[in-house]
Each structure stands twice: as C-alpha cells, then as structure tokens.
C-alpha cells in the first residue's frame, strides 16, 4: 500500500485510526463522497476508523480527549511520511509502527508539532539522523524509534524533553563520537525517565559515570549488544529503583561492582556474554543486614559466558524469588553451597562449564519447580543424589563430563533421560539406557555369601597386619629410646639440670627447655607439671617424670616474624608457611579414621626450623590431660606436643598408657564442630599473616572485626588491608600478586564462615593454596625466561 499524501487537506486532526487494517486508505478524490455535516477540507477533526477504513465522521475536540491522534500501525505502508503530517499542530499522538516506511525525517520535525506527546515510528525502514529540532516538541513523553536504520549520533537535544518517560533507540545504527557515551549525560535532565533502551547499536564506547545521575524513576535500562567496553561504572548502583538491567553481549571487563547490591526492586540482571572477571559480590545474593535495602526480589540472574572466578557465595539461598540462575561458562570453583536448595521458585539452573568440586548437594531435591538443571563440565564427584527423583517437572538434566560415581537414580524424571546426559563419568552405573555398566540384582544375591567371606578374610588379614606392624613399631621405639635417651640424667645433663638459662618458655601444663644431647643434637625438652591438680590422671601413678623431646626450632615462632620490626617475611615465604600449616591440619583431620583437633591454632604455635619450614605445635589433647568433662568445660584445651618428623614421648620406669580417648570426640556433632573450629582459626590466621594485623587491634570496634574488614574491601580494595611490605605498585608482578592475594583472602573467608558446616575442609584449602602458589610460580618462570 502506498502512503498517499492526502494530508494537505487537513490542518487539525482529532482521530485517524487504521491500525493493523487490511483495507486501503481512501484516495483523496474519494473523501468528498462521505456524508458529513462539515466540509472535508475544513479545520474540524476527522475520524478514519479501522472497521471501514473510510472517512466516516468529523469529531470536535472534547475536554476528555483534546488534541488529535494518528494511528496507522501495521498496514504495510510504503514510501515516505508526508511532510504535511508534521504541520498538524494539534496532533498529540502519531503511530506508524510496523510498516515499510522509508526516507528521512525533516529537519524542522519538531517545529510544527508543539502538542505532540507520543511518537511511535518503530519497525520501519526510516534512515538518516534524528533532527535536533525534536526538542521543540517539548511535551513528548513517549519516543520510539526502535527497529529502523537511523544512523549518526543520537541528538543531545533529546535531553531537553523534560517530560520524557520512555525512550527507545534500539536496533539502529547509532554511533558515539568519543570513547564515552556522552549522550547518556544529556538524558540526566529527563527527571521522569522510566525506560531507556539503547540496545543493538554500534556505540563502541564506555558507560559514563553520569549514568548514576539518570532519573531515580528509571525502571528499565537496556544497553545490550552495543559494543560497550571498559568496566561497569560503580555509579550504576545509584539507579536503586531499576527493575531490569540488561548489559549482555558487550565487551565489558573488570569486576561486578558491589554497588549493584544497592538495587531495592531489581527483578532481572543480564550481564552474560562479556569479559567480566573477579568473584560474585556477596551482597548480590542478599544483604546480611536486614535494615539495609535488599536485592532479594531478583527473578533472573544471568552472568554466563564471562571470566568470573572465586567461590559461589554461601548466601546464594537468599535469592528466594529467583526463577532463572545461569552462571555457566565461567571459572567459578569450590563447592556448590547447600543453601542453593532454598531457591524454591527456581525453574532453570545452569552451573555448567565451571570448576565446581565435591558432591552435588542433596538440597537440590527441594527445588520442586525446577525444569532444567545443567551441571555438566565441572569436577563434581561422589554420587547423584536420590533426592532429585522428587523433581517431577524436571525435563532437562545434564551432569556429563564430571567425575561422578555410584548408581544413577531411576525414579521420577530420570525415566526420561538419555545416555548423553551422563557421559564421561567413569564411576557411574545403573540402567543400561544410561550408557553405563549395569549390575543385575540376581548376580548380587548369588555373590552375597562370597562377599561376606571375603570381607571376613580382609578383616582378619588387616588385624594380623596391624598386629605385626605394632610389634615392629614397639621394638623400633624401644631401640630409639635406648639410642637417644637411656635415662632421666641424660635429659638433666642436656639441659644443665633444667637451668633457667635453658628455659625457652612456660605454659599452663609444662615448661620447655633447650638442650644438647651427647651426640650433639639440639632438642627442645617439654617437661610436664605433675603438681597440677587433676593433670595426667590417665598415666600410671608410679610415673614421677614426663617429658617430650622435640626437634629444636632455631627460627622461633611465626608470631615473632610477623609482628617484630627486626624480622620480615616475603610473599612466597608466607605462602609456603601457610601451606605447611594446612598440610599438618589436613593430616590431623583426615590422615586417620579418627580425626584429631588442634584446638589452639595461632601464629605463636607455628614454629620455624632452620630452613623456614613451619611446624604446627601445641595441638590440643585435653583428653590426655584429664578424665573428667568438668575439666574440659572450665579450662581451655591444653597444649601438648608438636607435629614433627620424629617426636618422642618419654616416660621413665614404666611405659605410659595413652588413654583410648586421646583427641577422640565422642559424638559426631561435637567432632564436626571442633574440627570446623580449626578451619575457622586457620582462616583468621591467613588474614593475620597477609594483613599483619591482629584481631585484637584497637581499630576493630563495634561490629567491625578482622574478617568483616577484609570482606568489605574484596575484591577491588584488597590493597587497603594487605601488609604494605607485600605489594609494590612499581613491581612487574604487582597485578599477579594482587590476584593471588584476592584468591587467598577468598579462601580465608570461606574458612571463617559464621556457620561451621559451611566452612570448607582442609583438603579443599590444600588444593586451593597449591593452585595459587603454582599460578604465581608460573608467572615468575615466564617473566624470568
């Protein structure tokens, strides 16, 4: 249909409506045939309805509907827009959306439309630039140029439309004339702006800081696929009333600003398809302080296809309204928090192509509305939880390319899944349709008796082997005792009769002396105080002297090296020392079937040998020191012993009987709690070592603590809390050290989580710190080559 220039007959229109009609607009020579009490060429208003598509009546202005409207959307109109339309001064609304109109807008566009409030030119083929004269239509509240071929610069004069509420320039060819999108700055004058869409253009610039000065009423901000680069301005967080923020498919870098947690009503956040790095801010998953505005109304969060690292925040469960969570194709590591099971409204969850470890949380079985779950391409281990059988709406489930084992559940939604969703998991078994080994029940029943016999034989051989090694160990200990110390006078000789000049220190249960054995070996001798009431009741009463001979540590304690001005530790020394400590704790916690709790981890209990290798000393064995629970309740865990290669327990006269309950926690709950106390202490000590700040510092008042101080500055303000001796901005390795320190502090925060069960294990800490060390060594190797 050709857009006929019939509007030269009309100078004032009330309503012309032919929206989405298949009937042709009448030719100008047909108009006089319409029966009307007013002449067609008069200055009165006309009405062209969509039902008849003919001029049927002329309607005067009324108080309820002043001005005129021109609605011709969806009519397949071609050609250019008649210039006469732009001279109808009474027009309030023009809508020619979804046609095939071409041509340019006249340079005097806004002069003849002083009453225009709504302008819809979307989805046509209009080209050229938007005239600066559009600002003369000063009453405009709605402007939509989406889906055309407009080019050049978006005019700053749009910022003079002080009543503007909705502006869409998406899907055009607009550009920016500088590295910064200054056009946004002009829009800060539009105080009523609620929706701004600049998507699908070629700006190739950065988001200016002035974005934070846009209207506080702005609820929708679309700026995706615009060639944006640089970081996400912190000032974006000033748009606290935004409902939707879409910045996907750009080249944005840097980290996700913590200010995004300021949004009070945000429902959708799309930043996928960029180059954003760093960790996910904790406050993006809900704030800890209930008196602070919350982001808990978020319906969808898509951060996929970026370069995010660090751990998934433990507070992820606070996003209780979220229905879509996509964090796929990043480098997020650590565990999947159990709190993710609190997202009861979740429909789509994708954590694929990351570095998640350990097991799939059982709590995922509580996501009863879940329809799609993708955990593929990670390092997940253990089995697939049976709890997932309760997800009756689950239609897509992918755990391929992990390290899962055990039987694949067969009930619930698993009846409909194919083998491709379980591939590349060597340890899985179950129904043959999953493409994994199958173990028939009949075979299990037939071999049941054989398994019982084998288990018995294995247990018997284990007992015999254990007895054999115990005998060997007993003989070896006796031999060593005879070779090193034969009687009490050797210890007395080594310490010059326990002279005060040899005294290294005194504790609640013992005194430590430096001694030199007859073979010239320097040792530390810890002598226990037998006069302490209630101590050592578990030892034989005939014993009059008890001591430990320990390897002597010439470099003293870690505390001396941290807080004394006469000593200093470099970056790699601190990493190596903390890796040594965590190796010792990992052995205590996981090296044997019965875990041992240290209970007194602090820098003063970490000793350094000649080669600056750290040794964790004075680990708590309160059960060795007494038999009563009352002692444990009223006295701190005792300190006794040191983890070295060859500690010797001395007892003269009769060999000491070590109680069965040494460091054994009698209940499972208490055992886990005390082990997690060690994890917490290690996390705090990590912060001490790299910040060189004590938790007892006078700077920490009120709610502020060492952990809160470190947490509040991550990841961008890490330099504010680190020991200045570790970082020199002039060094070539400054950036790499900064990244490593951020990762180390992330590990420290995960160790010191408030809830014990949410703290990571020492095995995980060993893995994380070794990865950080290897990464730093690789950089030094490249820089030296």
UniProtKB/TrEMBL annotation:
<keyword id="KW-0808">Transferase</keyword>
<dbReference type="InterPro" id="IPR000719">
    <property type="entry name" value="Prot_kinase_dom"/>
</dbReference>
<dbReference type="Pfam" id="PF00560">
    <property type="entry name" value="LRR_1"/>
</dbReference>
<dbReference type="Pfam" id="PF13855">
    <property type="entry name" value="LRR_8"/>
</dbReference>
<dbReference type="InterPro" id="IPR051809">
    <property type="entry name" value="Plant_receptor-like_S/T_kinase"/>
</dbReference>
<keyword id="KW-0433">Leucine-rich repeat</keyword>
<keyword id="KW-0723">Serine/threonine-protein kinase</keyword>
<feature type="transmembrane region" description="Helical">
    <location>
        <begin position="456"/>
        <end position="477"/>
    </location>
</feature>
<dbReference type="InterPro" id="IPR008271">
    <property type="entry name" value="Ser/Thr_kinase_AS"/>
</dbReference>
<dbReference type="Pfam" id="PF07714">
    <property type="entry name" value="PK_Tyr_Ser-Thr"/>
</dbReference>
<dbReference type="GO" id="GO:0005524">
    <property type="term" value="F:ATP binding"/>
</dbReference>
<dbReference type="InterPro" id="IPR017441">
    <property type="entry name" value="Protein_kinase_ATP_BS"/>
</dbReference>
<keyword id="KW-0067">ATP-binding</keyword>
<keyword id="KW-0418">Kinase</keyword>
<protein>
    <recommendedName>
        <fullName>non-specific serine/threonine protein kinase</fullName>
        <ecNumber>2.7.11.1</ecNumber>
    </recommendedName>
</protein>
<keyword id="KW-1003">Cell membrane</keyword>
<feature type="binding site">
    <location>
        <position position="526"/>
    </location>
    <ligand>
        <name>ATP</name>
    </ligand>
</feature>
<dbReference type="GO" id="GO:0005886">
    <property type="term" value="C:plasma membrane"/>
</dbReference>
<dbReference type="InterPro" id="IPR001611">
    <property type="entry name" value="Leu-rich_rpt"/>
</dbReference>
<dbReference type="InterPro" id="IPR011009">
    <property type="entry name" value="Kinase-like_dom_sf"/>
</dbReference>
<keyword id="KW-0812">Transmembrane</keyword>
<dbReference type="GO" id="GO:0004674">
    <property type="term" value="F:protein serine/threonine kinase activity"/>
</dbReference>
<dbReference type="InterPro" id="IPR032675">
    <property type="entry name" value="LRR_dom_sf"/>
</dbReference>
<keyword id="KW-0597">Phosphoprotein</keyword>
<keyword id="KW-0732">Signal</keyword>
<dbReference type="GO" id="GO:0106310">
    <property type="term" value="F:protein serine kinase activity"/>
</dbReference>
<feature type="domain" description="Protein kinase">
    <location>
        <begin position="498"/>
        <end position="780"/>
    </location>
</feature>
<dbReference type="InterPro" id="IPR001245">
    <property type="entry name" value="Ser-Thr/Tyr_kinase_cat_dom"/>
</dbReference>
<keyword id="KW-0675">Receptor</keyword>
<keyword id="KW-0325">Glycoprotein</keyword>
<keyword id="KW-1133">Transmembrane helix</keyword>
<keyword id="KW-0547">Nucleotide-binding</keyword>
<keyword id="KW-0472">Membrane</keyword>
<keyword id="KW-0677">Repeat</keyword>
